């Protein structure tokens, strides 16, 4: 089981990093998802791998599974789930507004960026 | 008394919930509640600073679970100073946003309150995993603030920012997981004792975890080579958000001071001072990159972004010493660079609004309204940022130079700091003369009035932003005027940081009356 968990974590991390380095938003998001899966599994294994053990104290138990990593993983899952939803919406809005799902900023974007910084400010000043 | 410690996190959380649930469509009420609540947070921070002034670290046990089993918030001088700085900055940002930026999108004030919650929590927590959670709260709010106002380029730069921070968060979890696997605890005070006792076979793994965490904090603190996200993100976002983000880079620096001073400090046996060999070289390169960036910038916003990178370089050189004078200098510079950076971001926004189609690009444009006043403010802010006398940047830099005097390669450090100051001075002088002196004739628009020329009289809505910037600049001047007492307070803080036993005692073995918690 150690081999299985360790190689699964390793493979998912490798896949995640590879996908993160792609130039389009969709693979990048998939890469982030893989990376969070990998870290969840990793955190889970940090409490040591135990089978058929209760997590909290019971009179009959011969040993215990560490409950803390399970709580940590739960928190990490909630946060990464929310963040994935956010970045999907962000990528979608970026695609719809700019017509491209490339990750890098083009020169045109740099030009637009200067405009967007103060966009709408002129309306505030009396002309 | 210790129950007050939890309030800097509870108050912004409640305010943000109120703003979203009860007042989602009432901008005027939102402004009143947001500014009022931030004022309360400021008063609270002042109260906590007074409380921490007796030099005794205090712990608040959430749910009254004893450490290291429950989560613990710790108030000492360092966290009290950071809380006060956050509240003061947030108040300025909230007031500035009321002058118009909060109309560009919804929920600016709620996001700002969530940001205050995350930052305050990160400064108070005494638990590594809780630090991760507060980092996430802070970052989630910052994603919203960063995108405030919308627009395709901001969305694209926002995607970078979110992706980088998600990667950093994942690394944070890997690091925390490794540390927990080896030591069986995530309480910082508990870790401080256990790291030294780790068996030889586990040291490599623990070191890996510690260095992964360092990579995360270095990303937050914009340390080279993990700084590239900062200029594009801060340049793309709105001015009040960029000003508020000035505290976020400082959270990274704070985490380095806390974790690598307390847990992996010099006493931690074979794992002692593991970050020290990396911080100073990386900080020197950061300083150079920032200074060259200032020189190469083609618009004012980029100029400020790169001077923020350079200031993080200066700050981390002092942090990297991990000794008393170094930490004193770092704190002094930290407060200064937060206020000055925020003033500059807001000032650039005000200038760009008045320049018409040229915005903040460094090219000739018609003279702007209130040129003398804005020019004088830019001059003062530039002096403070570059670190010339008489403003606070000079004091901070002087303390850093003094603290590094005995360090190895002191001559290299001095040359870099002074050379970078020169480059930045040239960059700012060039930018200032281009913006304020290289004026073209006003272009008459169809209506006959000069295009982009704002009225000279400052009334009502145009006055608020200028007043905010003036207050920030006055604060840096006050830091300089009161350099003696302020430096004394920072020195007391660094002394308290070096007394790790006091911190550990306050958390793990609270005496009756000083460590009571509640729920």
What would you say this structure looks like, in words?
The complex is a heterodimer of chains A (about 130) and B (about 525). Chain A has about 130 residues and is an all-alpha fold. Chain A has a single domain, classed as Helix Hairpins (Orthogonal Bundle). Chain A has 4 helices and no strands. In chain A, about 30% of the residues are buried. The C terminus of chain A is likely disordered. Chain B is mostly helical and about 525 residues long. Chain B has a domain of about 220 residues. Chain B contains 19 helices and 4 strands. The longest helix of chain B has about 30 residues. The chains are: A mainly alpha (about 130), B mainly alpha (about 525). Chains A and B meet through helix 2, helix 3 and helix 4 of A and helix 5, helix 6, helix 9 and helix 13 of B.
Read across the widest sheet of chain B, the strand sequence of neighbours is 1-2
Q: Gap between N and C termini of chain A, in Å? A: 72 Å
Q: Helix fraction of chain A?
A: 55-70%
Oligomer: heterodimer
The shape of chain A is elongated
The number of domains of chain A is 1
Largest sheet report of chain B: 2 strands, antiparallel
- Helix/strand order of chain B: HHEEHHHHHHHHHHHEHHHEHHH
Structure keywords:
heterodimer, A: 127 residues, mainly alpha, Helix Hairpins, 4 helices, 65% helix, elongated, disordered C terminus, B: 519 residues, 4 strands, 2% strand, globular
In short:
The complex is a heterodimer of chains A (127) and B (519). With 127 residues, chain A is mainly α.
Question: Layout of helices and strands, plus pairs?
Answer:
The complex is a heterodimer of chains A (127) and B (519).
Chain A: H1 2-20, H2 25-45, H3 67-98, H4 107-117
Helix pairs in contact in A: 1-2, 2-3
Chain B: H1 7-21, H2 27-52, E1 58-61, E2 72-75, H3 77-98, H4 108-124, H5 128-147, H6 152-183, H7 188-194, H8 203-220, H9 229-236, H10 239-263, H11 276-296, H12 300-319, H13 324-354, E3 365-366, H14 371-386, H15 392-403, H16 410-436, E4 439-440, H17 463-481, H18 483-498, H19 500-508
Helix pairs in contact in B: 1-2, 1-4, 2-3, 3-4, 3-10, 3-13, 3-17, 4-5, 4-10, 5-6, 5-10, 6-8, 6-9, 7-19, 8-10, 9-12, 10-12, 10-13, 11-12, 11-16, 12-13, 12-16, 13-14, 13-15, 13-17, 13-18, 14-16, 14-17, 15-17
């Amino acid at each position: 089981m150690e081999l299985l968990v360790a190689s699964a974590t390793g493979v998912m991390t490798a896949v995640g990093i590879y996908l993160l380095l792609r130039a389009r938003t969709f693979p990048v998001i998939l890469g982030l998802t893989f990376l969070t899966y990998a870290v969840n599994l990793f955190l889970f294994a940090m409490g040591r791998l135990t089978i058929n053990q209760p997590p909290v104290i019971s009179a009959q138990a011969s040993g215990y599974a560490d409950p803390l990593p399970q709580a940590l993983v739960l928190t990490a899952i909630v946060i990464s789930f929310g963040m994935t939803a956010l970045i999907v919406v962000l990528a979608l809005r970026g695609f719809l507004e700019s017509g491209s799902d490339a990750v890098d900023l083009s020169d045109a974007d740099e030009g637009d960026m200067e405009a967007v910084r103060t966009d709408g400010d002129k309306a505030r000043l009396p002309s | 008394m210790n129950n007050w410690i939890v309030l800097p996190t509870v108050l912004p959380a409640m305010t943000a919930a109120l703003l979203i649930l009860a007042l989602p469509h009432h901008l005027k009420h939102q402004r009143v509640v947001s500014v009022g609540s931030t004022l309360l947070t400021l008063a609270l921070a002042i109260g906590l600073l007074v409380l921490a002034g007796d030099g005794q670290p205090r712990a608040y046990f959430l749910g009254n679970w004893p450490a290291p089993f429950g989560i613990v918030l710790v108030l000492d001088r360092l966290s009290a100073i950071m809380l006060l700085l956050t509240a003061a900055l947030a108040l300025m940002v909230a007031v500035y946003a009321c002058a118009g930026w909060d109309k560009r999108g919804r929920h600016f004030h709620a996001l700002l309150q969530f940001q205050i919650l995350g930052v305050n929590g990160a400064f108070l927590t005494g638990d590594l995993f809780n630090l991760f959670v507060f980092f996430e709260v802070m970052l989630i709010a910052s994603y919203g603030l960063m995108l405030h106002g919308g627009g395709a380029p901001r969305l694209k730069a926002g995607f970078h920012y979110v992706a980088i921070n998600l990667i950093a968060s994942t690394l944070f979890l890997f690091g925390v997981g490794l540390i927990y696997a080896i030591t069986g605890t995530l309480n910082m005070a508990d870790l401080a004792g256990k790291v030294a006792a780790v068996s030889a076979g586990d040291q490599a793994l623990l070191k890996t975890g510690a260095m992964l965490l360092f990579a995360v904090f270095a990303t937050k603190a914009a340390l080279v080579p993990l700084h590239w996200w900062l200029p594009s993100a801060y340049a793309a976002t709105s001015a009040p958000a960029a000003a508020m983000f000035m505290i976020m880079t400082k959270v990274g620096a704070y985490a380095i001071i806390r974790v690598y001073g307390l847990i992996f400090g010099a006493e931690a046996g074979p794992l002692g001072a593991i970050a020290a060999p990396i911080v100073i070289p990386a900080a020197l390169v950061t300083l150079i990159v920032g200074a060259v960036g200032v020189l190469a910038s083609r618009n004012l916003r980029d100029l400020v972004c790169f001077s923020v990178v350079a200031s993080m370089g200066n700050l981390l050189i002092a942090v990297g010493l991990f000794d008393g004078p170094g930490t004193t200098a770092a704190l002094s510079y930290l407060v200064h660079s937060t206020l000055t950076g925020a003033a500059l971001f807001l000032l650039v926004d005000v200038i760009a609004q008045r320049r018409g189609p040229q915005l903040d690009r460094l090219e000739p444009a018609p003279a702007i309204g209130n040129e003398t006043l804005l020019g004088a403010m830019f001059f003062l802010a530039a002096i403070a940022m570059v670190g010339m006398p008489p403003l606070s940047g000079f004091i901070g830099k002087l303390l850093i130079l003094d603290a590094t005097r005995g360090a190895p390669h002191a001559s290299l450090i001095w040359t870099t700091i002074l050379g970078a100051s020169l480059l930045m001075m040239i960059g700012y002088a060039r930018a200032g003369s281009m913006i304020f002196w290289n004026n073209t004739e006003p272009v008459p628009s169809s209506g006959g009035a000069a295009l982009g020329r704002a009225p000279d009289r400052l009334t009502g809505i145009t006055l608020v932003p200028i007043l905010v910037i003036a207050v920030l600049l006055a604060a840096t001047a006050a830091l300089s005027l009161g350099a003696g007492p302020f430096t004394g307070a920072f020195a007391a803080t660094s002394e308290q940081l070096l007394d790790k036993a006091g911190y550990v005692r306050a958390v793990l073995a609270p005496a009756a009356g000083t460590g009571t918690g509640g729920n």
